[in-house]
Amino acid sequence: MQQTKETNSWAADDIAETITHLEQQWASAAKANDSAQIAPLLSEIFVEMDGTGTIFRRSEALDRVRIGKWQVFEVSDIKVVVQGNIALATGAWHGKGTLPDGKAIDAREHWLDTWHKNGVWKCIASASAPVKDA
Predict the structure, then answer these.
(1) Is there a smaller number of Cβ atoms within 10 Å at the N or the C end of the chain?
(2) Which CATH architecture does the domain made up of 9-130 adopt?
(3) What is the pTM assigned to this prediction?
């Protein structure tokens, strides 16, 4: 786990564990098309940029969760950097299934999620980019 100098190491470890758990919870709910489990994790101002560069607001992102069908939806290699009430989580994603537009997908991406704590941790922004084949 990475952390900034401004953050107490014990607190940063606890926050990193919390954020990692939230990321895993999000992925599990997305695979099950359970947007109701994801909604509390997202801030009202949440914005997502997917691997194609398309921007989605919170309601659109939740709609996409309900419609997509996934055989595989996995996050891995999660790293968290903490500064104050902001946490940045990065990781890898592998998804295989059907997108909301009906297109088949089998993709790997790297992602960056920005979390903010105002009482509870909520994700305020998410961005991803395709992993280039070696």
Answers:
(1) C
(2) Roll (3.10)
(3) 0.88
Indicate the residue type of 116.
H
Backbone torsions φ then ψ of 27, nearest 5 degrees: -65, -40
Quote the CA–CA distance of 12 and 56 in Å, as a whole number: 30
C-alpha span between 78 and 61 (Å, rounded): 21
Which pLDDT does position 41 carry in this prediction? Answer: 98
Q: What is the DSSP string of the chain?
A: ----TTS-HHHHHHHHHHHHHHHHHHHHHHHTT-HHHHGGGEEEEEEEE-TTS-EEEHHHHHHHHHH-EEEEEEEEEEEEEEETTEEEEEEEEEEEEE-TTS-EEEEEEEEEEEEEEESEEEEEEEEEEEPPP-
Tell me how far apart the alpha carbons of residues 26 and 19 are, in angstroms, rounded to a whole number: 10
Span 51-109, pLDDT tens digits: 999 999 999 999 999 998 999 999 999 999 999 999 999 999 999 999 888 889 999 99
Closest CA to 108 of 128, 125, 90: 128
